Amino acid sequence: MPQQDTKAHGLLLVEDTPSLQMLYATVLRKAGYKPMLAASGAEALATFAEHRPRVVLLDLMLPDADGLMVMREMLELQPETRIIVITANGSVNNAIEATREGAHDFLVKPLGDIRMIGAVASAFAELREEVSLTVDSAGRGDALDRAFMGQSAAMQEVHNRIAAVAASTAPVFILGESGTGKELCARAVHLKSDRAAQRFVTLNCAAADPEMLEIELFGQSAPKSGRGSAQAQTRAGAIAQADGGTLFVQNIQDMNRDLQAAFLRFLQRSSFAPVGDTRQIKVDVRLVCTASRDPTEDMRAGRLREDLYYRLFVIPLTMPPLRARGTDIHMLAQYYLAQIAAEEGKRFSRFSPDVLDLFLTLPWHGNVRELINVLRHAVVLHDGEVVTRAMLPHNLANLPDPNQVPPTQPNADPFAGLTMAQIEERAITAAISRHGGSVPRAARELDIAPSTIYRKREQWDKA
């Protein structure tokens, strides 16, 4: 359901056929939107200039103007606008041309209700997601500072790595535990590159319908005749949408083997054919990937093609776990506390000293995501200006105070009372911390394979 600020004045529908305009408007209103209406290019531009809607449904075939020209003028007035173009004469070439010039999506008449509402909802969702990282060239550094708050050695290594790889066109593979900010890292690579003014397109292979993943990636060409798939529509896939910009592919190992082979051919040729078409379309795309599991292990297990692995695993970049970032935790906690308190209408502004000390001792297996959940728990369930230990979730509030060192006996065994699994976790975590979050260096110290550490940390996250 769209947020409140999008309902009143956030959507413009441009359609010159009265019956279709009425039909589309009815569907949108039932979904909770309140679209402004226009029936010509001139009316559309006048309405757009006055109200500056954030999302536009634009028919390319208008009685007084070329729809693409109207789209260009709208984007010149407000570049961040998400424009969804509609046509009865769609082709893949038109879809690519529209997306290259800034269209968010491409629909072909007759429009399905679900497809239209899905496209509109996606446009608004993308705008909300990009608010914190929408910057011009002068403000780009500030956005990166917000995304990667902290001065630890581990984060400085990440900053340096991003600066080194941003100007390249080589694929980047981002590694790291769940919740460490791998997508923010990918956006930072994009914002630091000369593609920053172009689109950053995300495709999560694990979240997509496996049967639709090929279309999500390569797009779809409408059938040339009425036979066959009558519901098929011309649709620009993630690759076409990212032309000139960056394509961020998550969990690429969840593609089936045949689709992995097709994706490899795209990487080798820099061209692709949409589903239902044989014509090759040339594109210029920078690829950034990430995975929820160790890609080396997936390659050895046969889940990731070996030839694709070596094509993708050119520049690895590892996001450090929160527990390896030292007092960065305090900076992040303060930032998110202010953000969550504002969202919830609360007065919280700081932490008690014992909470700050405790934060430095926690393993944070869920990383920044876990930190945010802990803070939201405290803010939602309590009132005040200072977050105290009693306000934390029960499992954290009852931990021993890190400042109260229990008396020890001479020659006491530091591992007494611990299971082998607990000893192993402590040893690996300590080694990673000693090496500033670097898993490969920790693995060399412990004389084990890095993949062993990644596998065990995944097991800990699930525990």
UniProtKB/TrEMBL annotation:
<dbReference type="InterPro" id="IPR011006">
    <property type="entry name" value="CheY-like_superfamily"/>
</dbReference>
<dbReference type="GO" id="GO:0000160">
    <property type="term" value="P:phosphorelay signal transduction system"/>
</dbReference>
<keyword id="KW-0805">Transcription regulation</keyword>
<keyword id="KW-0547">Nucleotide-binding</keyword>
<keyword id="KW-0238">DNA-binding</keyword>
<dbReference type="GO" id="GO:0006355">
    <property type="term" value="P:regulation of DNA-templated transcription"/>
</dbReference>
<dbReference type="InterPro" id="IPR058031">
    <property type="entry name" value="AAA_lid_NorR"/>
</dbReference>
<feature type="domain" description="Sigma-54 factor interaction">
    <location>
        <begin position="148"/>
        <end position="380"/>
    </location>
</feature>
<dbReference type="InterPro" id="IPR027417">
    <property type="entry name" value="P-loop_NTPase"/>
</dbReference>
<dbReference type="InterPro" id="IPR002197">
    <property type="entry name" value="HTH_Fis"/>
</dbReference>
<dbReference type="GO" id="GO:0043565">
    <property type="term" value="F:sequence-specific DNA binding"/>
</dbReference>
<dbReference type="Pfam" id="PF02954">
    <property type="entry name" value="HTH_8"/>
</dbReference>
<keyword id="KW-0067">ATP-binding</keyword>
<dbReference type="InterPro" id="IPR003593">
    <property type="entry name" value="AAA+_ATPase"/>
</dbReference>
<keyword id="KW-0804">Transcription</keyword>
<feature type="modified residue" description="4-aspartylphosphate">
    <location>
        <position position="59"/>
    </location>
</feature>
<keyword id="KW-0597">Phosphoprotein</keyword>
<dbReference type="GO" id="GO:0005524">
    <property type="term" value="F:ATP binding"/>
</dbReference>
<dbReference type="Pfam" id="PF00158">
    <property type="entry name" value="Sigma54_activat"/>
</dbReference>
<comment type="function">
    <text>Required for activation of most nif operons, which are directly involved in nitrogen fixation.</text>
</comment>
<dbReference type="InterPro" id="IPR009057">
    <property type="entry name" value="Homeodomain-like_sf"/>
</dbReference>
<dbReference type="InterPro" id="IPR002078">
    <property type="entry name" value="Sigma_54_int"/>
</dbReference>
<keyword id="KW-0902">Two-component regulatory system</keyword>
<dbReference type="Pfam" id="PF25601">
    <property type="entry name" value="AAA_lid_14"/>
</dbReference>
<dbReference type="InterPro" id="IPR001789">
    <property type="entry name" value="Sig_transdc_resp-reg_receiver"/>
</dbReference>
<comment type="subunit">
    <text>Interacts with sigma-54.</text>
</comment>
<feature type="domain" description="Response regulatory">
    <location>
        <begin position="10"/>
        <end position="124"/>
    </location>
</feature>
<keyword id="KW-0010">Activator</keyword>
<dbReference type="Pfam" id="PF00072">
    <property type="entry name" value="Response_reg"/>
</dbReference>
<protein>
    <recommendedName>
        <fullName>Nif-specific regulatory protein</fullName>
    </recommendedName>
</protein>
